[in-house]
Amino acid sequence: MSKGHLYVGLDIGSAEIRAVIAEEISVEEPLRVIGVGVAPSLGMRRGIVADTNNVAKACNSALEQAERMAGHPAESLVASVSGTEIFCQNALGVIAVGRADGEVSEDDVARVLEEVQARLAMPLNREIIHVIPKDYRLDDQKNIKDPIGMRGVRLEMNALVISGSMSHLKNLSRSLEIAGTSAESFVVEPLASAEAVLSTRQKELGTALINIGGSTTSLAVFEDGDLIHLAILPVGSSHITNDIAIGLRTSIDVAEAVKLQFGSAVPDEVGKKEEIDLSIFDAQEDVLVSQRHVAEIIEARFEEILSFVNTELKNIGREGLLPGGVVLTGGGALLPGATELAKKILRLPVQIGYPKSLGGILDQVDTPQFSTAIGLLLLAQSNHSHKNAFSSSGLLRIFPESIHAILKKTERWLKQFLP
Ligand SMILES: Nc1ncnc2c1ncn2[C@@H]1O[C@H](COP(=O)(O)OP(=O)(O)OP(=O)(O)O)[C@@H](O)[C@H]1O
Ligand SMILES: [Mg+2]
Questions:
Q1: For residues 57 and 137, is the Cβ–Cβ distance under 8 A?
Q2: 5-84+166-203+353-413 with 230-350: one CATH topology?
Q3: What atom in ligand 1 is closest to the CA of residue 12?
Q4: Which is it for the CA torsion 171, 55, 227, 102, positive or negative?
Q5: CB 315: neighbour CB atoms within 10 A?
Q6: How many Å apart are CA 237 and CA 315, to the nearest integer?
Q7: From the CB of residue 217, how many other CB atoms can be counted at a distance below 10 Å?
C-alpha cells in the first residue's frame, strides 16, 4: 500500500496511450513508478481527438492496467495535449511599477503576467495552455531574470504563450469524462518530453528536443534555459509504415513488423543482397523483398520529417546553430540509423533521449516512448510542490522557479486562477 502523494501521467498518443502512476516518498527522492499501463490508441488522428468514445476506451484500458499494478485509483491526472493546432507566440506585457518608491514587488510581476494574457487578442476558439515568462525589462535594463526588489518605473515581461484549439481541449476533457476521470491539467507534448529528457545544461547551451511519435513529430527548442520555440508537425513514424506498405504492396501490419524488425534509415549500411521473407509475418505473403529497398523507403520519409524540423529551426534562425545539438525521443527515435541521418540533415550533434531515471518499476518506462508520460509526472510533481496556479479551465501554467515562489505568496493571483 502506498504512503506518499500519488501522481498520474497520461500520454494520449496517436499510436499508443500510456499511463504511469508514481509515488512521492519525499521531495528529496526521485518519484517511484508503481503502475504502468499501455493501450493501442483509438480515436486519435494526428494528435487530435477524432472519436471521443474510442479515445475514452483506450485511456480507460491504459489507466486500468496502471491502477491494477499500483493497487490504487488513478486520480487527479495530468494529460498530454498534442496536434497541429498547438501554436506558440511571443508576447509582451507592460505595466507601471505600483509602489511609490519604484521597488518591483511580487504583485507587479503577477500584474505584468496578467497583462501578457490580456494584450493577446486570442480568438474565441483558442485557449491559452501555458504562459512561460522569458525575461523582463525594467526601464532601460534588459534581460532581467528576476526583477523583484529592483527599482524602476516601467516593467516589461517577455513571454512565450502556447495556445491550442478550444474544441480539441474540450474533446480531450470529454473523452476523459467518458472514461470516468478528469485531467487536473494538460501539458503540451514536447514540453513534457523535454522535461523528462533534457538536462538543465542542455537547455542552457541551446538544444532542440524532437519527439518522433506515431503520426506527429513535435519540437521544443531551448536556449539560455528558456523555451524559445515549440511546434507539432503532422508527420511521424506511422507514415514510414504506410510508405513501406505501399512500396512493398503489403498490409500495414506486415509493413510495421518489417520496419520494427528490419528497418534502417541508412541504406548504405544494409547489404545489397540482404532479403526479407514476408511469409514470417504473414503466411499468405510468400515474397522476398530487398532489405536495402526497405531502408531506401524509410530514408526518404525520415529525411522529409527531418527537413520539416529543419525548416522550423531555420524560421527561428537556429538551423545548424544549436551548441547542445538535437535530442531525438519518442518511438520513432528507436529506428536504427535515426541519429546518423538526423546528423546529416540537421548538421548538428544528435543523440537519443531516454527519460530521466526514477525509482520503482523502471524496466517498462526506461524507453524513449515513455518520455512524455514521465515528463508529465515530473511537471505534476513540480506543480504540486510549488502550489502552482491553475486557470479557470484547469490548464496548467508553467513558470520558472522565481515565479513559483511569487505565486505561492500572492493570494490575489491564486484566487483568480483557482477553479
Ligand atoms: N524499435 C522501433 N523501431 C522503429 N520504430 C519504432 C520502434 N518502436 C516504436 N516505433 C515506432 O514509433 C511510433 C510510435 O511512437 P510513440 O509511441 O512515441 O507515438 P505516440 O506518442 O503514440 O504518437 P504521437 O506522439 O504522434 O501522438 C510507431 O510508429 C512505431 O512504429
Ligand atoms: Mg507521443
A1: no
A2: yes
A3: 27
A4: positive
A5: 11
A6: 24
A7: 26
* pTM for the predicted model, two decimal places: 0.90
What tens-digit pLDDT sequence spans the chain (419 residues)? 556 889 999 999 999 999 999 999 887 889 999 999 999 999 998 888 999 999 999 999 999 999 999 998 888 799 999 988 899 999 999 999 999 999 999 899 889 988 998 888 888 899 888 888 889 999 999 999 889 999 999 999 999 999 999 999 999 999 999 999 999 889 999 999 999 999 999 999 999 999 999 999 999 999 998 899 999 999 999 999 999 999 999 999 999 999 999 999 999 999 999 999 999 999 999 899 999 999 999 999 999 999 999 999 999 999 999 999 999 999 999 999 999 999 999 999 999 999 998 888 777 899 999 999 999 999 988 877 654 433 333 334 444 333 444 334 333 333 333 33
Residues touching ligand 1 (Cβ under 6 Å) are: 13-16, 41, 47, 82, 213-216, 236-238, 241, 256, 259-260, 263, 330-332, 334-335, 369
Distance 297 CA to ligand 1 centre (A): 17
Least distant ligand from the CA of 258 = 1
Domain 5-84+166-203+353-413 -> CATH class = alpha beta
CA of 267 to the centre of ligand 1 (A): 21
Can you tell me which atom of ligand 1 is nearest the CA of 372? 21
> Which atom belonging to ligand 1 lies closest to the Cα atom of 338?
4
Ligand 2 centroid–CA 17 distance in Å is 9
Architecture in CATH of 87-162: 2-Layer Sandwich (3.30)
* Contact between 379 and 78 (Cβ < 8 Å): yes
230-350 maps to CATH 3.30.420.40: yes
- Cα gap 374→355, rounded to integer Å: 7
Instruction: Delimit the domains of the chain by residue range.
Output: 5-84+166-203+353-413, 87-162, 230-350
Ligand 1 pocket, mutate which of 10, 369, 370 (most atoms under 8 A from CB): 369
